[in-house]
Amino acid sequence: MNPNPFKPTAGKRPPMLIGRESVIEDFEEGLDNGAGAPGRLMLITGNRGCGKTVLLRELQRLANERGWAVVSDSASLGLCDRLADALRSNKPVVTSMEFGPSFGRMSVEAARAKGETLRGLVNERLKKLGPGKGLLFAIDEAQSASIEELAALAVLYQQVLGDQDATGLPDSDQRGLALVFAGLPSMVDDLLEEPSVTFLRRAQQRTLGAISLPKVRDSYIQTVKDAGLYADAETADLAAHKSMGHPYMVQLVGYYMWRSAVRRGSQVIERRDVEDGHVDAVSEFYEAVDAPLYYGLRSPQRLFIEAMAVDEDKPTRMADIIERCDRTQSWASKYRASLIRERVIEAAGYGLVRFTVPMLGAYIRDRVLWHE
Prior knowledge:
The protein has about 375 residues and is of the alpha/beta class.
């Protein structure tokens, strides 16, 4: 039996990492081009399921390959303490360490003090690395971190640059610090609004969206072939369209179409396998992406998008939302702005809005409004 090559699991690297080449190239150039290169300070955002964690782990792997030390963390209160604990370890080089989350807030003064402590530990660690090498802090789920601690890391980045300049070494030989944050879009908005982290406005910002369908089609053909089955271009093209280019959906469709063919005892993935697999993929996407997003919104926001879902796959008029919700124009404007800010919806022309999250409207119709 040929093992299923598709991996629709959070954070699991897919068999082919596609559609993220420009981010990877920017990061590699940042490491290779010496102290102060733009790719060493990066903010990666995108909605759930778009592959932020997978990409972050790929960047960690690339840094390790270049001899950089890596510390990774799923952010939350205590971020600076956990990074400091990693650097205090007795290992000569921290190659990769991961920490779990906790939650809460921290005072600005406490965060600054921890940042100063971290500065000394970072510089001590950098002394143990070779010329031109450095330390990468890879911070996932950054929207869960204390804004004060993120601000402290931004200050730390500037301070370490200055400390390395003071060594008098050429940029190519200076030890470096790289910071890569990954999180939901609202994280970047909140972060960049903070006066204490204006420096981060100069970071490279990369928003992960859909992958081009031709790339998805080609990846299906190659992945299936490498794993011992066959899918022709027409079947792979259908699967790509069913996936909508969403990274998580790409893996779901691939996984279930493969399973359908294997259960038939076939070595060839056919159109019926794609169609059957798509049904299972949609159900799983609903539960993993759409449901948590929907129930994570405030009640007025849910009412707003429920009114949008009635229109199926076409943009919704703001006037219709006001009428369906029996609310005022100011109410609709307020929650329109909040949903756009959280990247749940977007403007679709004058007086129009539409969903940005795949199948969210369909989820609401199928699982929320079906009984009405």
